[in-house]
Amino acid sequence: MSKAQLDWANLGFAFHRTDYNIRYTWRDGAWDEGVLTSDDIIPLPMAATCLHYGQECFEGLKAFETKSGDVVVFRVEENARRMIHTCERIMMETVPEEMFVDAVLRVVDANRRFVPPYGTGAALYIRPLLLGTTAAVALQPAIDYLFLVFTTPVGPYFKAGFKPVHLIVEDTADRAAPKGVGNIKVGGNYAAGMRASMNAKKLGFADVLYLDPREKRYVDEAGPANFFGITRDGQYVTPDSESILPSITNKSLITLAEGMELRPERRLIEIEEVFDFAEAGCCGTAAVITPIGSITYRNRKMVYCAEDEPGRICTELYEALTAIQIGDAPDPFGWVRVVPELQEATRRSP
């Protein structure tokens, strides 16, 4: 298949329909073998547990084209394990790691022509989604499930790309509760944060920085991404909180930070500390790293990027991680996995 005719440099972080998605059904105590389909509509009972009782979860990861022409996915096994943890927390049938990985490889291969070319800065975003599909009005776990994976080519999450953004501290609303579901990837967490994010955008900020929901004293999470700070003596610190999602990107940055002698540490970060950091950033699958240009807290503002340029350490971390993702640097950690050309009978343009 030839490459799709898209404006790779100006994709934005938006949905673009690709050729196939893949679907697996859990019924009568077993998963089926999965099927590739071009249908982008999901048939659901109106009483499905995913619609009424929140039995749904998802993941997000990316595929890249390398200089050699290979297509690779980044840390797919970590996403599989995180979804298993989520399933266990909200009483859903787990997706076995091997099946999850196989689904991702199959659907990326089937949509290979939508993987943005090497050097464009774009990627193929992969969205695994699990839904409870049993029709029920009683509050109980589903007995039927649909696991699907779709893809879409994307550009940077923020329009400016790797450029500083400006955040405002949200201290009037909570995204998640302690010991709740803030540390698993369910849609309700994102719905809970939409009002604060939209209000921040109306005020001219890119997003919000949440405080811990118990004391409103510690930094929790930056909108849809993990937060990290760089202290003035060059240490990478990131919040230790039971109400934020364990970011696979943050986990990767911590590993790289160790090799760069940044002494990474997960700990409580008091909001007042943001006024002492030398640099700060958001990190996640969508943006990798987004440098924070400033944080506004009540009537105070801390500026990290006076000339609106990313700081040195944020830049070094970003370049180190993205170089591994696209094959420009060795991968000593085994994070990238080449997508084999599976040559399925259905792998053709519909």
Layout: helices, strands, pairs:
Blueprint: E1 21-27, E2 30-31, E3 35-37, H1 49-52, E4 56-58, E5 61-65, E6 71-74, H2 76-89, H3 97-110, E7 123-132, E8 145-154, E9 165-170, H4 187-202, E10 207-211, E11 219-222, E12 226-230, E13 236-239, H5 248-259, E14 265-267, E15 279-284, E16 288-297, E17 300-303, H6 312-325, E18 336-338
Parallel strand pairs: 9-10, 9-16, 13-14
Antiparallel strand pairs: 1-2, 1-3, 1-8, 4-7, 5-6, 5-7, 6-18, 7-8, 10-11, 12-13, 12-15, 15-16, 16-17
Helix pairs in contact: 2-3
Mean pLDDT: 94
Structural class: alpha+beta
Oligomer: single chain
CATH topology of the largest domain: D-amino Acid Aminotransferase, Chain A, domain 1
Q: Quick one: biggest sheet?
A: 9 strands, antiparallel
What is the second-level CATH architecture of the largest domain?
A: 2-Layer Sandwich
CATH level 4 superfamily of the largest domain = Aminotransferase class 4, branched-chain amino acid transferase, N-terminal domain
Q: Which descriptor suits the 3D outline? A: globular
Number of domains: 2
How many distinct helices? 6
Strand percent estimate? 25-35%
CATH class of the largest domain: Alpha Beta
Roughly how many Å is the radius of gyration?
A: 20 Å
Termini gap: 11 Å
Helix percentage: 10-25%
- Low-confidence spans: 345-350
Attribute tags:
D-amino Acid Aminotransferase, Chain A, domain 1, about 350 residues, nine-stranded mixed beta sheet, 18 strands, alpha+beta, D-amino Acid Aminotransferase, Chain A, domain 2, disordered C terminus
